[in-house]
Amino acid sequence: MSQLCPCGSAVEYSLCCGPIVSGERVAPDPSHLMRSRYCAFVMKDANYLIRTWHPACGATAFRDDIVAGFAHTEWLGLTIFEESGSDAENTGYVSFVARFIEQGIPARLLNVRVS
Q1: For the domain that residue 106 is a member of, what is the CATH number?
Q2: Which domain of life is it from (predicted)?
């Protein structure tokens, strides 16, 4: 049975973010990178999250915290509002909201670029 991609695209995971998360394909733009990272949170894939964080944040140092967070968080959905920048520029911005429940409390992560 095929599984729809958690990113909200209404496409099968194996045809959408799955190949990006597995490393078979590179995210073609900031929006796909954000969608694939959201999927990694849903699928509890700390390796992909760490691989795609900027090296300066030192994500490997808090791997245990990332993994521990998986046990207490249920991801409910992702909405992307806007994307700017491109792969060619090596910089991109995505405005989004990710909805989740953490330790039984509904919450959201809102990231909006202010120009």
Answers
A1: 3.10.450.50
A2: Bacteria
